[in-house]
Amino acid sequence: MNQLDRLGEPVYALFRMVVGFLFMTHGVASLFGLFGGHRGSGQALQFAVWPNWWAALIQLVCGALVLGGLFTRAGAILASGSMAYAYFIVHQPQDLLPLLNGGELAAVFCWSFLLVAVMGPGVWSLDSIVHRHQNHELTPDTGGLASVNQPPRL
User: Fold this and answer.
1) Does residue 153 lie in a domain region?
2) Which domain holds residue 36?
């Protein structure tokens, strides 16, 4: 295995975390008026207004799930679908190309989250920790049960 092959898992984990964080900050900005607010207005969105408030809630929740790697595939599918909706309903009617219709970010998020949904959470995730604790490794010295004295591997 060459040096670059060993970097695959950590780089993918960082990619997942950065994409989740960036998506989450859009939700925080729109829901709470932080970081310049919704679209730089300095304002938070009005509660439960369709579709912007709900899109911001998806951004916050799904971004946090993907960032932490918890329910990663479900969060990534919902995030990807919401960005596909945003692209085709909001941006694409203005022009065909993302560069001309302002939809580059929606397209990049859509495809990034689709990649995360397909690839899964990776090793640096809460999902992998939960999975490891649910599926104890079988050990021959305990008759098929994990040893009580054996510390969990992270």
Assistant:
1) no
2) 3-142
